[in-house]
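Handout, page 2. Input:
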Amino acid sequence: MDREKPLREPVTQEGSSLADSLENATSKEEQLKAVDEHINNAELQDGELDESMTPEHYDASDLKVLEGLEAVRIRPGMYIGSTGPRGLHHLVYEIVDNSVDEALAGYASHIEVTILPDNGIRVVDDGRGIPVDIVPGEGVSGVETVMTKLHAGGKFGGGGYAVSGGLHGVGISVVNALSTRVDIEVRRQGFHWTQTYIDQKPTARLLKGKPMEEGESTGTSVTFWADGKIFETTTYDFEILRNRFQQMAFLNKGLKISLTDLREPDQAGDEVSGEESETEDKFQTVTYQYNDGIKDYVDYLVKSRKATPVEPDVIDFEAEDLKIGISAEIAMQWTTAYSEAVHTFANTISTTEGGTHEEGFRAALTSLVNRYAREKNILKDKDENLSGDDVREGLTAVVSVKLTNPQFEGQTKTKLGNSEAKTFVQRVMTDKLGDWFDAHPNEAKNIIQKAIEASRARLAAKKARENTRRKSIFESAGMPDKLKDCQSNNPEECELFIVEGDSAGGSAIQGRNPITQAILPLRGKILNTERASLDRMMKSDTIESLITAVGGGYGEDFDLNKVRYHKVIIMADADVDGAHIATLNLTLFFRYMRPMITAGYVYVAMPPLYRLKWTKGPHDFVYTDAERDRVLAEGKAAGRQLPKGEGIQRYKGLGEMSYQELWETTMDPEHRILKQVQIEDAEAADETFSMLMGDEVEPRRLFIQRNARNVSWIDA
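Output:
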């Protein structure tokens, strides 16, 4: 690899430097090392790109080239997170993010996404269109450059976009790298321009087609088919895409986003208009547009939680500083709920792990409320300060910042690192919310009164909190009586099974590996933490046992380093009741031990639904009705037979299994199926938890029945 060659010098042969390294490698390990060095080198030199162009300028000279696509197919997870359903949907986000960038720059107003009958995806926008002229030094069009070169795009030159999202700007080239076919149509410079890519290669040069009609908007249409050899599945989930695009519409005031599923007819009407489509075939379709942006977002979140607002109107304000290239929009409303829901975004990317903008928001909010409460004598001299948890109890808020040069920690952009974001958000919050408090003294007093009540509940729970501190090995007597702990003291190899019921707990204790597997049987359903105050929650023996066993505490004082098990596995029956119990447990982790989820420590066990007792050969355990039918058909095709009458055993509960069966199907690391709980989308998870744990029975019943075996917020 020639590291001395300046990065600005064009790569005249696609991926030549990496290709040479791969050709010289003598083993798979050397190939992977070459790819890693190549990627790291490219990332280190991002900052060397020419930043002399003006944001108004956007043509092929704005498209700066870093690398080719070889690395993407070798290590797709480095670019899209995974090759499971999460990574598949990320391809769609990459294309839509490009269209959103056009909207942020003020050039696009409508994005249309369509799932085609064969699971292709089409994204159409009315932006400026990808540049079609020849890129200096490349000898090919702007379209071909962004399609075939990694890190080529208007995000990398200082021109083209002042603000952009997207996964480190790799965007459309990564989609091409991981697709079998991509069709591009650009409406620009008075003509339709088209090009098709098969297995990453263009079938011909960019074709100049028919002239644009009078009044026809410029824009880009991208249609792609994900590569089934790369991805575990190429079937898209309408609900995952719908939720993401609704969020994008909230975050981009006035932007219209439509999603249509052409795969199978559905009776769903248009979500904005509430009217059914007039076409003969009725397909599932939604359209989102919010003229008040994140103010509408907070209003939607509060209503979806069925919470009662403390103040009647959503508090919202925005500010920008052009000198440092940052703007912030903040909307918030306190409710009578006990849990907080603070959602943060940077350049419309959901920062589920927070970052500097969230730190600034939290610090300013806590400081301002305490200062105002003392100035107005609501808090007395003898009273201790309100904590951040007290102040945020019942708060629903959205913090959205946009930066010219965002710094994200991690490849998938879940934590913002810009130090100026903390200072800026802190200043905006102090000024704007302070003004709002001064203008609305009665509402401010109600908000502070609620925080004081939360503080009292916290102090009432203080004794219980001290009891939940992590016990050392010499203090194991402090562990719950029902906990059958493991022998190992190494959290990295220790597993805690939370088991529903004493009978299943007994089987689990008998069947476990006592060296690394601990069992905590819980009797019945735990307290609904969504609707319980902190002091009431900590009076629950079941919840106290669980928090004590895990060892990290809870709430603002939770310490991930003190957690005693790096796998906490919720094990419940494979039915509606079991799903409800699992959800109650997940709610506890989501509300009070969320770092456990973000660290990937929480899992749901997947016990089998059926046992197929073949007359010859080993029995099969299957986990869904569809899998049962498939395995039966395959078995019969192979000449296998089931005994009459008792060939198919359906498990009604974990307690029905012998300890050998429970070990073999649900606990043995060699054979079990665990699903790791991931907060792919904090807003969607929060909304779902609120719906499941709220007062509305019917939506909860329907959701549990529909998703009892396919929970949407967990990913294998």
